[in-house]
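Intended use. Records like the one below are meant for learning the mapping from a protein sequence to its folded structure. Do not use them to infer anything beyond what is encoded.
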Amino acid sequence: MTAPTELLAGWARAPHTHAGVSHDVYRKGAGPGVVIISEIPGITPRVIEFADEVVAAGFTVVLPHLFGTPGAANGTWPVVRTLGRICVSRELSLLALGQTQPVADWLRDLARQLHAELGGPGVGALGMCFTGGFALAMMVDTSVVAPVLAQPSAPIAVTPRRSADLNLSPADLAAVKQRALAGCEVLGLRYRSDPMVGRRFDTLTRELGDRFVRVEFDGREHATLTEHRQQEAVDRVLDFFRDKLAP
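Structure written out for the chain above:
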């Protein structure tokens, strides 16, 4: 069995600090920058596998370590442990309604720094599941020109209202809509009957119009790029990054 640290052996690790908050960031590749924010329980082997594909396609990928054990496998207990830590976190929230995740400011700073270093039109940002909406929040900063939402699932869709919420404050939603009106497209991926995504795609279509590009697959599965991978989903993400991030 491959040890977790071996899966990240080719990735450079360094801390990124903003406003007194520091998290490790794993980095690999060359070319335009892409921030990939892992799903719960963390930077799993499947997340690393997908990130390596993005690297191979000609991008510099950074993986922020926000929770979990980097390289550890997915599973029930890792998910439960991570959820427990998120529940007491000041940066993350499973239930906040009509609010932007506090960690968004840190992620926006990471994107700004990556763009300043690498140049080009901007960077890509991709979130998955619990972090799906994080990429939308990062879009408030103009350094992010290719936001991707893979099965966005926060806040937890326990009521119709929560299932339609975009995990954004009113001010941030207004900023996202303004950027969309200015031409910035948002790519969304999901299984059509995934209960965790709820009604968010309908909200995104209503708020962003044709700037929200919906990619949907039949079924009730969840992780379009990792555990329940669809090759078309991966291909659409890579094409989106190539189109938006080419110099």
